[in-house]
User: Which sequence fits this backbone?
């Protein structure tokens, strides 16, 4: 039985990746930060389907010590899915060092040091790392410079680690387009949503299953490394 760690795996896209990998015979470690109830409920639901197949681990990924503690709590791993991320606008005239530190730490520094700390066990298992990037890693989203820079870094991390960790560990990425509308401070108006939808060639949002299925495809593709697949309904055709 193979084991996958999904960061931010209790909610939204992360929860779907967790469920899809589990349905395909992976044991899952569901990482969460604040979503304890959702993580425990999801683990319970998966353990009801197959006993001892899901566990949870809490960690604040903007804290490097917590990142290392999380990684060191894991004995054996086949897939690391770096999914957790923060997303909110940082217009250049308002961007603060706090936002820079929080977004970079969560979206870029944590995936790097999780990969480093978990590399020895991934190497033993011929495992892989799958980074959830964003189409905005290449084509910037206005007023989100820090987020764009963090995801551009994650895209380069995918390629540079694919080179360095080959031939025993593969490193790939999935770049979602518009999948689930952002919440809280990043919430969009109906006008903004319609404008975004009008740019998608397939004329609709994707769903979390589109991302999870691509993660599964990459997990099952032993001759693919260093590649990042856009799952965006053709949105980048119109950008
Ligand atoms: N939604 C989209 O349409 C879309 C589009 C493009 C790219 N993406 C990418 O796809 C991935 C999933 O997207 P999503 O919208 O499902 O993500 P999300 O809901 O914004 O965040 C996923 C999880 O990340 C965790 N997280 C955030 N900051 C954290 C921190 N400092 N430490 C630990 N965990 C932290 C949260 O866990 P807790 O809830 O436990 O606190 C959260 O549930 C992300 O990498 C995102 O950038 C999504």
Assistant:
């Amino acid at each position: 039985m193979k084991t996958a760690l999904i960061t931010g795996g209790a909610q939204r896209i992360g929860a779907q990746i967790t469920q899809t990998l589990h349905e395909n015979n992976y044991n899952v470690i569901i990482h969460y930060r604040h979503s304890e109830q959702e993580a425990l409920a999801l683990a319970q639901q998966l353990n009801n389907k197959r006993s001892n197949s899901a566990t949870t681990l809490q960690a604040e990924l903007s804290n490097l010590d917590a990142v290392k503690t999380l990684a060191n709590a894991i004995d054996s791993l086949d897939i690391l899915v770096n999914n957790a991320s923060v997303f909110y606008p940082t217009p250049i005239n308002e961007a603060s060092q706090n936002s820079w530190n929080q977004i970079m730490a969560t979206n870029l520094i944590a995936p790097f040091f999780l990969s480093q700390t978990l590399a020895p066990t991934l190497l033993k298992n011929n495992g892989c790392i799958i980074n959830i990037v964003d189409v905005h890693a290449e084509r910037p989203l206005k007023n989100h410079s820090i987020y764009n820079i963090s995801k551009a870094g994650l895209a380069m991390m995918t390629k540079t680690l694919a080179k360095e960790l080959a031939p025993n560990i593969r490193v790939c990425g999935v770049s979602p387009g518009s999948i689930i509308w952002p919440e809280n401070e990043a919430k969009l108006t109906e006008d903004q949503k319609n404008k975004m939808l009008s740019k998608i060639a397939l004329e609709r949002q994707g769903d979390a299953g589109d991302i999870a299925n691509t993660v599964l495809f990459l997990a099952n593709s032993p001759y693919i490394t260093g590649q990042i697949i856009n799952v965006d309904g053709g949105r980048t055709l119109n950008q």
Residues 8, 10-14, 32-35, 60-62, 83-87, 106, 132, 134, 176, 178-180 surround NAP (CB under 6 Å).
